[in-house]
Amino acid sequence: xxxxxxxxxxxxxxxxxxxxxxxxxxxxxxxxxxxxxxxxxxxxxxxxxxxxxxxxxxxxxxxxxxxxxxxxxxxxxxxxxxxxxxxxxxxxxxxxxxxxxxxxxxxxxxxxxxxxxxxxxxxxxxxxxxxxxxxxxxxxxxxxxxxxxxxxxxxxxxxxxxxxxxxxxxxxxxxxxxxxxxxxxxxxxxxxxxxxxxxxxxxxxxxxxxxxxxxxxxxxxxxxxxxxxxxx
Length: 232
Prior knowledge:
Layout lengths: L7 E2 L2 E2 L6 E8 L3 E12 L7 E4 L10 E4 L21 E5 L16 E3 H8 L5 H8 L1 E9 L5 E6 L4 H12 L5 H10 L1 H7 E10 L4 H15 L1 H4 L5
Helix pairs in contact: 2-3
């Protein structure tokens, strides 16, 4: 990640050549995200310092989050790290670079195919996949080209994540009408037009029979057997 190091604070140097500097962005609850690490090469007056990025730390840029209570001192943005090492702890190393996006809740799960694929492959929203593993539920697949719906349910050990993963792999998930659509239109059709929406969610220990009953309820609500992709 790009990061600029201002070499001076008024008439006072912030850095000296040879020093290592670690840059963090403040996050909520005393958390800090590492965005850069570099060695100071030169500090020209009233200008940015020249630096050499410490490449061995680069894989952690945008991923390493530490927990450290620093207080709200805004007059300076450069601090001696040795003063905080005793209290700083690693809170998390994200599987992908932090984008600022967070899991907004199960009642807001509505994802196009390409975004679902990015989540499952660890490119975005690192907490999203884990959240989907923790719940069972009833979901809706929408063909945005035709408006047709498919209602399904997830009751496996890894919940909705397990079921939706099968759609990413096969596109059709083994469902009769979706298989026919796949054979007619191909994988690219699903990748372009299908979205995945969570209608209801339950804990992993919730009675699967009751989940299947809710699945049938939603099929009748949206009439997806006659006018959608459900066949029973």
